[in-house]
Amino acid sequence: MRQPLLYKMSFLNSNTQGLKPSATLQINQKVKGLRDQGRDIYHFGFGQSPFPVPETIVETLKVHATYNAYLPTLGLPELRKKIASFLQQYQQVNASKESILIGPGSKELLYQTILMINGTYLIPKGSWVSYLPQVKLNNKEFALLETHWAHNYKLQPQALEDYCQNTNGTKILILNSPNNPTGAVYNPDELKALAEVCRNYQVLVLSDEIYSQLSFQAPHAPSISKFYPEKTIVFGGLSKVFASGGYRLGYLHLPHELNFLKDTYSSLFSETFSAVSTPIQYAAITAFEYKKELRESVEAARVILEALANYVYRSLTKAQIACTRTEGGFYMLIDFKHYKKQLKSLKLNDSVSVANYLLNQFNVALLPGIDFYFSRDEFIFRLAFVDFDGKKVLSAYQKNKNILLDLKFIKTFAPNVFKGVQKIIEFTIALDQNSHN
Predict the structure, then answer these.
(1) Distance from the CA of 437 to the CA of which of 22, 28, 292, 351 falls in 20 to 30 A?
(2) How many domains is the chain partitioned into structurally?
(3) Residues 211 and 221: beta-carbon distance below 8 Å
(4) Is 166 helix (H, G, I), strand (E, B) or coil?
C-alpha cells in the first residue's frame, strides 16, 4: 500500500512542491494570532498602506455596488483611458488606452506575464519576495544579480552587463522602484545607464512601479520606460498609492513593440479570472482621475512616510544598526553586521533565528533577508514602518500642516513605530551586555 505522503505528492505539480506561503502574508497572520492572544507586537513585517481608502474612491464604489455585469476581459475602456493619461502625466510613460490591460492586482499580472514569456529572469538581490516563487512556479530559468550596500542595493549597469555578455537567449529583468524591500529609488541617470545595457542586449524589462507616487522626490519616481520604451512593460495598481490593497486591481502597460502579446493576454485573462470586479473598476476611474483632493492626500501620506523613515534611520544608525536610505514607499533594510560576534555568542547564527528571537523575546516582527534573496547568514532584515493608525495620523497632519513631524509627533501618533524601534535598540544593548558578561 502506498504511503499517504507519497500518494498525496503524486497528485502535485512538481513546480508547486515545496512552495511556501508568501512570507509577507505569513508574518501578518502570525502577528494577528499573537495579538489575538493579548501580546503587544510591534509589527514591522507587513507592508500594507496604513492610510484609509480616499473617500472619493469609496463613494464611487458605493454608487456602483449594484453593477454586476461582466466587463470586457482587458478592462473597462474608460478606466484604461484614465490610467493611460495618469501614466503619461505622472510617470512620463508613453501610454494609450489600447496599451493598458486590467487585472486583479499587479501581482497576478506579473504572474501571467512570467507564464507567457520564456527566457531567463534576472532578479536583483534585494527584491520583492514573490518574484522568484512566481518564476519557479512557471518553471522558468532565473539568475540572481549581485547588488551592494554601498549603492543602496540598486542594480548597477556593470553587474547587468557582466551577466548579459556571458549568456545567450532571451533575458527578462524584473526591476522595482521605489523598491521593496530597500526603499531605494532609481534616479534618471541610473535608469538611463541600465536602459543602455538593456538595449544593447535586447533585455525585456518588467518594471514594477506600484509605489511610484510615494517617492519622496515628488511627484513620482522616474520610470525606466522613459529611456527604454520599446521593451519595458510597466506594472502598477491601486494598492499602495491609493491605500486599496484589498480592492485587488492592477494594470500593465504594454509598449507598441510588444503589442503582439495582447491577444495572448486576453486569452489568458478570459480563461483564468475573466474580468476584474465591476464596482472596483468604476472606483478605480476616480482614483486615476487623480483630482486635486486625491493628490493632496497622497502628498500628505508621502510627507508622513518620509518623516517616519528619517526617524527610524536616525534612531537605528545611532545604535550602530546599518540602514538603507528610504527614498520612497515604506520600507528599509536594516543590518546587524556590527553585532555578528554578539549574535553568534547567543547561537543566533542566521537571519531566521534572529527574527524568531526578536519576536519571541522583544515582541518585534521583522522579515529576514533570506526572503529577499540575501544569504541566510547575513543579518539583514526588512523593516516596514507602517504599524500606525493612518487615519489618525493623516487627520492630525491635514488639520495643521505646520505641525512638526518630530519625535513628539511620532510618539503620539505612531506609538508602535516608536516603541518598536526602541525595542530593537534594547535588543542591541542586551547583546552588548551579554558579550561583556
Answers:
(1) 351
(2) 2
(3) yes
(4) coil
